[in-house]
Specification:
Blueprint lengths: L1 H32 L5 H16 L4 H9 L2 H15 L7 H11 L1 H9 L7 H28 L1 H7 L9 H4 L1 H22 L4 H21 L2 H20 L4 H21 L1 H17 L9 H18 L10 H12 L14 H22 L9 H16 L7 H19 L4
């Protein structure tokens, strides 16, 4: 009788774990789909993912695991530090808004300390869904491009760009395209020896996404992609692997931008605009609507704001108001729409929390490189691209950017590690 009861309980536990695993996968898919659907879908699916991952009697064990895993608590510091600055932020409403946006930086690491223990096949299902989702987004974007090619090409001479998913957030979408390239390339090398058809499909996807990335011509995605190639080349050199692979990667690194310049009108026009804009930002002058000129000025603003309160910063809630004051004082002719946040997450954390903020942010970006995984090269490429993107972007100040960084890094950590927890 006891034996039968034990078997019955074991079957129930197994069935419960299997259903939970399926639900976690479905919520993960829903979160990714939420990038292309109304924002409420993303918020609700995050909530569902967290609840299903943590809601059981082992919650204390999960919290201990969270506290003992540097990758998890390190990511949560990116939420906790802005939260603490609310003590000295005068604009509580703005501070609360910024903290709310960053909440997934705490919730998702907690969730991944719980029952997120998918099988290799389930992680691959999620990866394929992600790749197909982003590829579909690129097709949608190119469809709008071909409606009026000449007008779009000319727009690239005026700091404009293709229409993209994510409510036309081309910076975040370009970075997602780079991640999709990495995911497809990783699966390609996994499948090449035993599943030729799948490998061919993945190779075609990689080629298409690389072409699209150059047509889109957004620097965050392009620089992240080329940085990944450089990391791979350095890895091969250090590991003393086949020299022809190094030569091939370095050839891609130098020849692809040249080929794109002479064959892709949007890419060529983007380069021309950057050269035009450079004449202003190198002199520190203001160019209305100029991406680089405004960006460089915003970096100066971030530096000066941080130096006002180097030990504590002005508080995250007060960064926007203090930045506007700085612009009014130093660039009174600047248009309101060009008075942007300091265009670097490093400087955002420095302005909001002083030099300790920059130190904490740097540590958080370095922790992944000391986190063990089974596929270190792919893991390092992903995190090098993420850290670089934050150098000249404020992805953690917008909902999509926060989710994309947190979920992608944690998903890849579990996927690349394939551990039983």
């Amino acid at each position: 009788m006891n034996r039968m009861l034990y078997v019955y309980k074991s079957m129930l536990k197994k069935l419960h774990n299997e259903w939970r695993s399926v639900l976690i996968l479905l919520f993960a898919i829903a979160m990714l789909a939420g990038l292309l659907l109304p924002r409420a879908v993303l918020s609700l699916s995050i909530a569902g993912f967290v609840i299903v991952s943590l809601a059981d009697r082992y919650i204390v064990q999960y919290i201990r695991r969270f506290l003992s895993t540097p990758l998890l608590w390190g990511m949560s510091l990116l939420f906790l530090l802005p939260l603490i600055t609310g003590y000295w932020s005068e604009d509580k409403e703005k501070w609360l808004e910024m903290v709310r946006i960053k909440l997934p930086l705490l919730l998702l690491p907690l969730a991944f300390s719980g029952k997120v223990q998918q099988s290799k096949k389930q992680w691959e299902v999620l990866a394929y869904f992600f790749i197909i989702l982003i590829t579909g987004g690129t097709v949608w974007s190119l469809f709008h491009y071909v409606q009026d090619i000449e007008a779009v090409n000319q727009g690239y001479l005026k700091a404009k760009s293709l229409l993209t998913p994510l409510y036309n957030d081309r910076i975040r979408f370009s970075w997602l395209v780079t991640v999709a390239i990495l995911a497809a390339a990783f699966l390609f090398f996994q499948k090449i020896s035993r599943e030729k058809t799948a490998a061919l499909f993945l190779l075609l996807i990689v080629i298409w996404l690389i072409i699209y990335l150059h047509i889109l011509a957004v620097r965050t995605g392009l620089f992240s992609f080329y940085l990944c190639l450089l990391v791979a080349a350095v890895w091969l050199i250090v590991k003393k692997m086949r020299g022809q692979y190094v030569v091939l990667l370095l050839s891609f690194l130098f020849l692809m931008p040249v080929m794109a310049y002479f064959t892709v009108p949007t890419f060529q026009n983007r380069v021309k605009y950057i050269r035009y804009d450079a004449g202003y930002f190198l002199k520190g002058n203001y160019l209305p609507g100029g991406n680089d000129a405004v960006r460089v000025i915003s970096l100066k603003a971030g530096r000066d704001i941080m130096l006002q309160q180097p030990l504590t910063g002005v508080g995250f809630g007060d960064v926007p108001a203090v930045a506007r004051e700085w612009y009014s004082k130093n660039y009174p002719e600047m248009k309101p729409e060009d008075k942007v946040y300091p265009a670097s997450e490093w400087l955002m954390y420095g302005a909001g929390a002083g030099l300790p903020g920059i130190l904490v942010f740097t540590v958080c970006m370095l922790i992944p490189f000391f986190t063990k995984t089974s596929h270190r090269l792919w893991w390092w490429m992903l995190n090098a691209a993420a850290a670089f993107s934050f150098l000249f972007d404020i992805g953690l100040e917008v909902q999509f950017g926060v989710f994309i960084y947190a979920f992608t890094a944690l998903w890849w950590w579990k996927w690349m590690k394939q551990e039983k927890m």
